[in-house]
Specification:
single chain; 427 residues; alpha+beta
């Protein structure tokens, strides 16, 4: 955009932020032009920026398909966009609609989902699809009250679907919103986890949201929080809500100005450090485990977790158990074999279908998951033929003898894949 556009900007478009050094052509913040609209000035400025800077994401081409938006929002929970991009298109090819999702076996769904983690999301997604088929004739509703009745859909996801696909003015408030609005309104001494602050942000966001483009506005806040107003950086010189990028005299800014009030009071480094205050650190819990990989030349033993378990239900893993005595944690000792007197052989024997002294130590790994550090001692039991293992072991309903290719395709958590790689059963 040329410099001339700064003075001939009658359509409300925000000048190109990359040319911020030449944007100081207005006497005060009040002079920066906006469209003739009842929309809040912040909504207008943010949408103008979004129109030129928005990320091209596949689910953003699906505002007429609430199922696709629903799946994308569930995948994006606790997961980076870059990771979701690797899964979304494959999912939509295999599971293109609610009916297909409701009828596809969970094992097939887990195979598509593996690597995304937080498998509880997937279980709730399938339950939600079944509910939609039963209660809404297979059509995803667009109103907040009906969406909130669907298993696995909370206020945030309901607001996202309703605003993007139903043009309903509901702010989809999440962590990005708490950070952006803490800085936008200059909230000091607050943490995103504080319930009172969350209510304040929700009310503020719902008072500002664009009534004509609510879905785009929600996604614009997300993009601003992802690219400009991030947890580790405040790129105020690129921000469409920073009046200093456009005017020579900022003057007094009230809550209806539509400008960010932190950026004119604090340097970016202070904004990052203090607005909002960082989350209180939770000390990671250390968990010590023993894992046993049982294999012959071309197959290995997998154990299927119960579908009733709260986490990782229905996934396959190897025989695994937590150490019962912290003082005996194998990860704190060096050893070459289970015969080492420091090794609690009884714990390994509980996993092994044969004499545990036949198991070989393959070292240990550390796997970090949220606020848990798993210290896993890995053992390998190499058999000539898995079919020769005790019949009572092989007949267990949770036991599966899987080929190498099956192991690669079955739903197995990242932690267990790390264990299998450490054991190197087929080398």
């Amino acid at each position: 955009m040329s410099n001339n556009n700064n003075n001939n900007n009658n359509n409300g478009t925000i000048p190109d932020i990359e040319e911020s050094d030449s944007l100081f052509s207005f006497e005060s913040a009040d002079e920066v032009p906006l469209t003739a609209s009842s929309e809040h000035p912040m909504a207008q400025r943010l949408l103008a920026w979004y129109d030129s800077e928005k990320r091209d994401l596949p689910w953003r081409h699906s505002s007429d398909n609430p199922y696709k938006v629903w799946v994308s929002e569930i995948m994006l929970q606790q997961t980076r966009v870059s990771t979701v991009l690797k899964y979304y298109n494959n999912w939509m090819t295999a599971i293109p609609d609610v009916k297909t999702l409701s009828t596809t076996p969970m094992d097939d769904l887990r195979a598509l989902w593996q690597g995304l983690g937080y498998y509880r999301r997937l279980e709730q997604l399938k339950k939600g699809a079944t509910y939609v088929m039963t209660h809404y004739d297979g059509t995803v509703p667009l109103t907040l009250d009906k969406l909130l009745k669907i298993p696995g859909i909370g206020v945030y996801t309901a607001a996202a679907i309703s605003s993007i696909c139903g043009m309903k003015a509901h702010a989809a408030v999440d962590g990005n919103f708490y950070r952006v609005f803490a800085r936008f309104d200059n909230h000091l001494s607050v943490r995103p986890s504080e319930k009172a602050f969350q209510k304040t942000v929700a009310a503020r966001a719902n008072s500002i949201i664009s009534s004509s483009r609510p879905g785009d506005w929600n996604q614009a806040v997300m993009d601003l929080g992802s690219a400009i107003c991030t947890p580790l950086a405040a790129r105020c010189d690129k921000c469409p809500l920073n009046p200093r990028n456009y005017v020579t005299n900022v003057g007094a800014l009230d809550e209806n100005s539509g400008w960010c009030r932190s950026t004119v009071r604090h340097p970016p480094e202070d904004i990052v450090a203090k607005i909002p205050l960082p989350k209180l650190k939770v000390k990671a819990k250390d968990v010590n485990e023993i894992a046993l990989v049982i294999a012959d030349k071309s197959r290995m033993v997998l154990v299927k977790r119960s579908s009733d378990e709260a986490t990782l239900s229905g996934l396959y893993e190897v025989p695994l158990k937590e150490h019962t005595t912290k003082e005996q944690a194998l990860t704190k000792r060096r050893r070459s074999s289970p015969e080492d007197e420091s090794f609690p052989i009884s714990q390994l024997q509980a996993l092994s279908p044969v004499d545990a002294t036949a198991c070989l130590s393959k070292g240990s790994i550390v796997f970090k998951f949220t606020h848990i550090n798993f210290h896993i001692d890995v053992f390998l039991l190499k058999a000539d033929n898995l079919d020769a293992l005790p019949s009572d072991f092989l007949k267990r309903p949770d036991i599966k003898i899987a080929t190498k290719s099956e192991v690669e395709s079955l739903p197995v958590s990242t932690k267990i894949r790390r264990v299998i790689k450490k054991a190197a059963p087929f080398d």
